[in-house]
Write a structure and sequence with these properties.
Mean pLDDT: 96
Shape: globular
Bound molecules: FE3-S4 cluster
Number of strands: 17
Distance between the termini: 65 Å
Number of helices: 14
Low-confidence stretches: none
Helix content: 25-40%
Strand content: 15-25%
Radius of gyration: 21 Å
Length: 393
């Protein structure tokens, strides 16, 4: 450890910092790290009241009382309640606890973005070291931007924020970023198909793959693909042909070759996705991971020619909290058409007021968790198809 790290460890920076440093050192020892590394950006996850409840809140309160402050640039994942815009879809039972968590985090100096797309708040650079929680963001950081981060859990991201350090092992080392398989997928022309491919690879491929032809995909398809591989599997680095920056990965001399064809994906879709019907209450959901600025603009374009959302359907779009002021005209327009826009929330770690008979989403990650955690029936379709199906002329 450096002199500064030793001082943190021994308590010269206060009890909270000493505890944070001890957590990182302990995890580092288990992971075989030889040293610590400074991080440019920490993304804190695991802070929804839905998941951590009173014990988590009490822990956060205690360390902040003991002087915990964020020494690194730190952003935070979505919360379990709608923080802006439409809030009526979400139960109020989590409101008090979540606001208390948020206020403690903000006191610590965490930037209140409440989003799972921290790479759209601050763009990571190739080769820079991060300590990120949130599996989709980690996969984007490593695979799209060429930054170096492990898949961190919530407590470790808090410790990294306080110390500005993480342990130097796992994906922080180039020798652990070795592609072992090359996958040739079928043509991917929308994000729903990209999501299905991601879920499929997450489920069946457990080595680090490279995806041939990924440079032809849209940003939305890449985002949904990576989020899906990280949901159904534990992928944190999927090398994207001609996108992942060179020198941020290596390629094994004995590459396994895998081909996935259209027919296989179609069979997979039949297994994991429901078919679309409007027999009961339907929740159409776009924004897992949160929509980008351009996606939201594109949704406005899709919706232009329609009158309003059909009866017995809610069309929900989740966005980073700060988009509310940034895109107020687009949001006003969408709300006038009956679309529900919620800022800073993740519906997967929330409680909905009304249980949907069917969810339709363009996100493989949302499909995976809404089925697994909430037992919902979920169908997958692209954002364009969702708009076409749920809006009235
Ligand atoms: Fe974001 Fe929640 Fe999906 S954190 S990636 S909206 S599961």
């Amino acid at each position: 450890m450096t002199r500064e790290e030793e001082a943190m460890y021994s308590g010269e920076y206060g009890e909270a910092t000493a505890l944070a440093m001890k957590i990182i050192v302990k995890v580092g020892e288990v992971m075989g790290a030889e040293k610590l590394v400074k991080v440019k950006h920490v993304h804190v996850s695991g802070v929804s009241y839905y998941n951590i409840r009173e014990p988590g809140l009490l822990f956060l309160k205690k360390i902040v009382e003991e002087g915990a402050i964020a020494r690194a640039y730190t952003t935070v994942n979505p919360s379990s309640i709608g923080l802006c815009g439409c809030t009526e879809l979400f139960s109020r039972e989590l409101v008090d606890g979540q606001y208390m968590i948020n206020s403690v985090l903000e006191k610590m100096g965490v930037r209140p973005v409440y989003t799972c797309v921290p790479y759209l708040v601050r763009t990571p650079s190739p080769g820079e070291h991060l300590a990120w929680g949130e599996s989709n963001a980690i996969a984007m950081a490593n695979s799209f931007y060429g930054a170096f981060t492990n898949r961190e859990g919530g407590p470790l991201t808090i410790a990294a924020a306080i110390t500005g350090r993480t342990y130097y092992s796992g994906l922080h080392l180039i020798n652990n970023r070795i592609v072992e398989a090359i996958i040739t997928p079928p043509e991917i022309n929308d994000e729903a198909l990209a999501s299905l491919l991601g879920l499929y690879i997450g489920e069946y491929v457990d080595v680090k793959p490279m995806i041939a032809g990924a440079w032809k995909w849209s940003f939305l398809s890449i985002k949904e693909f990576l989020a899906s591989t990280a949901a159904s599997g534990s992928h944190a680095l999927v090398v994207l042909d001609k996108i992942t920056p060179l020198n941020t990965y290596r390629v094994s001399s004995s590459l396994e070759k895998i081909s996935i064809d259209e027919k296989e994906l179609k069979l997979y879709k039949d297994r994991v996705s429901e078919s679309i019907d409007f027999k009961g209450y339907v929740l159409a959901y776009i924004g897992c991971p949160h929509t980008s600025y351009l996606e939201l603009k594109e949704l406005v374009n899709y919706i232009l020619s329609y009158k309003r959302v059909r009866d017995n359907v809610d069309l929900l779009i989740t966005i980073p909290l700060h988009y509310h002021s940034l895109l107020s005209d687009e949001i006003k327009y969408l709300v006038e058409k009956g679309v529900k826009i919620a800022g800073g929330v993740c519906p997967i770690v929330s409680v909905l007021n009304k249980k949907p008979d069917l969810v339709i989403t363009n996100s493989g990650k949302a499909l995976f968790y809404l089925k697994k955690l909430h037992g919902f029936r979920v169908a997958i379709a692209s954002a364009k198809e969702i708009v076409r199906d749920v809006m009235l002329d």
